[in-house]
């Protein structure tokens, strides 16, 4: 048998993975949800034909969207995740004993159900007593909370469909207000090869709001171009000032104190995206 799942990552480029089987398909109220068992990456979650996570490479993204910011804030007690219904980001957050409460706000409850059924190794912390799961629109949740969260993580899909508003300047203003006085924020911000204009615009918006704005990189093989960006805005603490000594032992496979520092070293073509005059 020779069945392939193909994601059209740009109009002119595709990534194909040979599949053993399609385990699940449904139309949720928000999107098409599919789960494949692939030969190369193991189980794979696909929303609207876009790969969201796979069992074999999810650790890179989930460790890097969480631990950089969690190790930057000295005491991140209240953490909010917008999106992230597969649970991988929550799994990494609860490794930090200092976190008292992690709130997940996911617009599509079917993603959470599918993750619990097909991705137990990723969703395993969703029932942790410190975790609160809310099925709601993250944009509304952030608008209705003020000065509550030490850290807000936006673990979204691409900036189309349900996630489009999560990349808007208005949303970032509400995020700023929902944070505590020394809070910080991080979002996945797509590929520097294919989403340069978006990265430039988001960085400008974040740098206009937060005293500290940084962009960092990680390598995610199943995302377009393989190189992925995260944008961080902080009211006080700078991820570049984090001391390597004294960081908690997290049992990570990609993140480390050295990777924390090196992730902020940007190739010139990426650094150019952040130049103010653009
Ligand atoms: N191009 C796909 C980008 C998806 C980023 N979010 C993934 C969610 C994993 N928790």
In this structure, how is the largest beta sheet organized? 7 strands, mixed
Terminal-residue CA separation:
49 Å
Task: State the low-pLDDT regions, or none.
Answer: none
Percent of sequence in beta strands: 25-35%
Q: How would you name the CATH homologous superfamily of the largest domain?
A: Vaccinia Virus protein VP39
Q: What count of domains describes the coordinates? A: 2
Find the count of extended strands (DSSP E, 2+ residues).
12
Q: Can you name the CATH architecture of the largest domain?
A: 3-Layer(aba) Sandwich
CATH topology-level fold name of the largest domain: Rossmann fold
Given the helix and strand composition, which structural class is it? alpha/beta
Overall geometry: globular
Bound molecules: spermidine
CATH level 1 class label of the largest domain: Alpha Beta
Query: In which range does the helix fraction lie?
Result: 25-40%
The radius of gyration computed from the alpha-carbon positions, rounded to a whole number of angstroms, is 18 Å
Order of helices and strands: EEEEEHEHEHHEHEHEHEEHH
Please tally the helical runs, counting DSSP H or I stretches of 4 or more residues: 9
């Amino acid at each position: 048998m020779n069945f392939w799942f193909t994601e059209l990552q740009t109009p002119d480029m595709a990534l194909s993975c040979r599949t053993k089987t399609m385990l699940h398909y449904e139309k949720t109220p928000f999107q098409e949800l599919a789960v494949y068992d692939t030969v190369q990456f193991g189980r794979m979650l696909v929303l609207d034909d876009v790969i969201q996570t796979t069992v074999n490479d999810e650790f890179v993204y989930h460790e890097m969207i969480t631990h950089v910011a969690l190790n930057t804030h000295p005491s991140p007690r209240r953490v909010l995740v917008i999106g992230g219904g597969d649970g991988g980001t929550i799994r990494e957050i609860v490794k930090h004993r200092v976190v008292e409460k992690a709130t997940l706000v996911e617009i599509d409850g079917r993603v959470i159900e599918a993750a619990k059924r097909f991705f137990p190794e990723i969703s395993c912390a969703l029932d942790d007593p410190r975790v609160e799961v809310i099925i709601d629109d993250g944009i509304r949740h952030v608008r209705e909370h003020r000065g509550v969260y030490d850290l807000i993580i936006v673990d979204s899909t691409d900036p189309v469909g349900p996630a489009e508003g999560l990349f808007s300047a208005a949303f970032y203003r509400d995020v700023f207000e929902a944070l505590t006085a020394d809070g910080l924020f991080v979002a996945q911000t797509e590929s520097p090869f294919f989403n340069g204009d978006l990265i430039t615009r988001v960085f400008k918006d974040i740098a206009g709001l937060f005293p500290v704005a940084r962009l960092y990189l990680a390598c995610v093989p199943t995302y377009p171009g393989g190189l992925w960006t995260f944008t961080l805005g902080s009211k006080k603490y700078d991820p570049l000032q984090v001391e390597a000594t004294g960081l908690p032992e997290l049992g990570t496979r990609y993140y480390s104190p050295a990777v924390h520092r090196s992730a902020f070293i940007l190739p010139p073509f990426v650094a150019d995206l952040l130049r103010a005059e653009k």
